[in-house]
Design brief:
alpha/beta, UDP-n-acetylglucosamine1-carboxyvinyl-transferase, Chain, 2 domains, four-stranded mixed β-sheet, 13 helices, 24 strands, 30% helix, globular
C-alpha cells in the first residue's frame, strides 16, 4: 500500500492480535543479487515488496538476469552478467547500491551507479577503495554517487581490515572476491550482520572463518567460485518488526505477536536492549528459514526503565535506534545510546531527526557526535507535535508509534518513504487497533 502525504497517530487503546512483518530487507536484496549471479533458475517467496528491493530487482534485469514475479513468488534466471546500457538507479537504497558494486566488480562488467539526492550524499568510498585495492578501475565524485565501474582484468585477492563494522562493505568485498584470483582475507574486528555469509552457504559458496581472539574474526573467500540456484523463503525483517513490538510495549494493556521474524543474533541488539529495560518480550516457536534463525515475537505492555546501551551493540541494532529512542521516552530514567556515528549518514541524520522530534514532543533529549540521551519519567510524553520525517522511513514510523502512547496526537509531515521498507505499515497497524489517520 503506497502511503502519501501526512499522517497523524493518537492514543488508541490496547493493541492486540498477530501480524507479520514484511520480508527482511537485507536478506531480500541479497536473495535477488545471489539468484541473479547463480547459473540457473532460483525461486524466492517472502521477498519484501518495497521500493528499495524493487530497485535491486530492476538492476538485476538490467545486468541480464530474467526476473519474473507471479504473485508472491519471484523466479530469477541467473548467469553471466552483461554491462547495462543505462546507469543502475538505486533510488534511496544504500544496501542495493553497495552490494551490487561488489558483485559487478567480481563479474568483470562495466556499470554506472546512481541514486536520489539522499543516496548521492552518502559515502561510497568505503566500498570503492577496497575494490580498487583488488584492481578495480572506478571513478566517483568525492567518494559518492554517481560511480562508474570499468570492465577490466580479473581482480586480485587482498588482505584487508575493516575500519568500522559494516555488513554492506564486508558483503561488497566478499562478492567481488568470488570473482577474484586467489583467496581474499577480510579481518572483521567487530562482527556485523552476517546475512551474506549465511545466504551464500545456501547457494553453495564455501567461506572459511577464524576467530581473531578479540571478539572479531577473519573471513577467507576463495576466488573463482560460482553460485548454484536455490529456493528461498525470506523471513520477516526484525527492524520492521521492531515498530510493532515497540507499539505493544508502550501502549497500555497491549498484547501483540509478530510472526516469522529473523532473530539472527547479529540483528537482535534491539530485543536485547528491550530486555535490559524490563520489556515483556519472548521468542516463541524457534526454527530456521533461509539459513537464518526465525521465531515468533510476542510483546506485551511493560513498565520500562532506562538503561545504558553499550557502543559495541550498535552493529546489531543500527537501524533500531530511532524506535528505541521513542520507547525510551516512555521509560523511567535515562537511556544513553553511544557508538552511533553511522546514524549521521543514513537516509537522514537520524540523531538530529530524533532529537528534534522528541524535543518537540516534550521529551528531555540531548545528543553529541555519536550519542543520544533520552530521559523519561515513566509515562508517555505530551506529544502534540508536527514532526518532519526528513524523507526517512524509520523516523516517520518511530513517531507514528510514539503517537499511539503520547498524551496528544503526533503528526508526521510526509510518510511516502515508508514504502521503502514497510509498504503495509498502515493496514497492519490499523488491524492491531492503532489509531492512525
Amino acid at each position: 500500500m503506497q502511503l502519501t502525504g501526512p499522517l497523524t497517530s493518537q492514543n488508541s487503546g490496547p493493541l492486540a492480535g498477530a501480524a507479520s512483518a514484511p520480508g527482511d530487507k537485507s536478506i531480500s536484496h541479497r536473495a535477488l543479487i545471489f539468484s541473479a549471479m547463480a547459473a540457473g533458475r532460483s525461486e524466492i517467496t517472502g521477498l519484501l515488496d518495497g521500493e528499495d528491493v524493487l530497485r535491486t530487482a530492476a538492476a538485476m534485469r538490467a545486468l541480464g538476469a530474467a526476473v519474473e514475479r507471479d504473485g508472491p513468488v519471484w523466479r530469477i534466471g541467473g548467469g553471466a552478467w552483461k554491462s547495462p546500457d543505462k546507469a543502475l538507479y538505486f533510488g534511496n537504497s544504500g544496501t542495493g547500491a553497495r552490494l551490487v558494486m561488489g558483485a559487478v566488480a567480481g563479474a568483470g562488467v562495466a556499470a554506472r551507479f546512481d541514486g536520489d539526492a539522499s543516496l548521492r550524499s552518502r559515502p561510497m568510498g568505503r566500498v570503492i577503495e577496497p575494490l580498487r585495492m583488488m584492481g578495480l578501475s572506478a571513478t566517483a565524485a568525492d567518494g559518492r554517487l554517481p560511480v562508474a565501474i570499468d570492465a577490466g582484468a580479473p581482480l586480485a585477492a587482498i588482505d584487508c581490515k575493516l575500519a568500522q563494522p559494516s555488513a554492506q562493505v564486508k558483503s561488497a568485498i566478499i562478492l567481488a572476491a568470488l570473482g577474484a584470483q586467489g583467496i581474499t582475507c577480510i579481518h572483521e574486528p567487530v562482527r556485523s550482520r552476517d546475512h551474506t555469509e549465511r545466504l551464500l552457504a545456501v547457494f553453495g559458496v564455501e567461506l572459511r572463518f577464524d576467530a581473531d581472539g578479540a571478539g572479531g574474526r577473519y573471513i577467507f573467500v576463495p576466488g573463482g567460485q560460482s553460485l548454484s540456484p536455490s529456493r528461498l523463503a525470506v523471513p520477516g525483517d526484525p527492524s520492521s518488526a521492531a515498530f510493532l513490538v515497540a507499539a505493544a510495549l508502550i501502549t497500555p494493556n497491549s498484547d501483540v505477536t509478530v510472526r516469522n521474524v529473523s532473530v539472527n543474533p547479529l540483528r537482535a541488539g534491539f530485543y536485547e536492549t528491550l530486555r535490559d529495560m524490563g520489556a515483556n518480550t519472548v521468542f516463541e516457536n524457534p526454527r530456521e528459514e533461509c539459513g537464518e534463525p526465525v521465531a515468533d515475537i510476542r510483546a506485551r505492555h511493560s513498565v520500562l526503565h532506562g538503561c545504558a546501551v553499550p557502543a559495541e551493540r550498535a552493529p546489531s541494532m543500527i537501524d533500531e535506534y530511532p524506535i528505541l529512542a521513542a520507547v525510551a521516552s516512555c521509560a523511567a530514567g535515562e537511556t544513553k545510546m553511544t557508538g552511533l556515528e553511522e546514524l549521521r549518514v543514513k537516509e537522514s541524520d537520524r540523531i538530529a531527526a530524533m532529537e528534534a522530534g522528541l524535543a518537540a514532543c516534550g521529551v528531555d533529549v540531548a545528543s553529541g557526535p555519536d550519542w543520544l540521551r533520552v530521559i523519561g519519567d515513566g509515562t508517555p510524553p505530551k506529544g502534540g507535535a508536527d514532526v518532519k520525517a526528513r524523507h526517512d522511513h524509520r523516523i516517520a514510523m518511530s513517531f507514528l508509534v510514539l503517537g499511539l502512547a503520547a498524551k496528544n496526537p503526533v503528526a508526521i509531515d510526509d510518510v511516502s518513504m515508508i514504502a521503502t521498507s514497510f509498504p503495509d505499515f498502515l493496514p497492519v497497524m490499523t488491524k492491531l487497533g492503532a489509531a492512525i489517520s
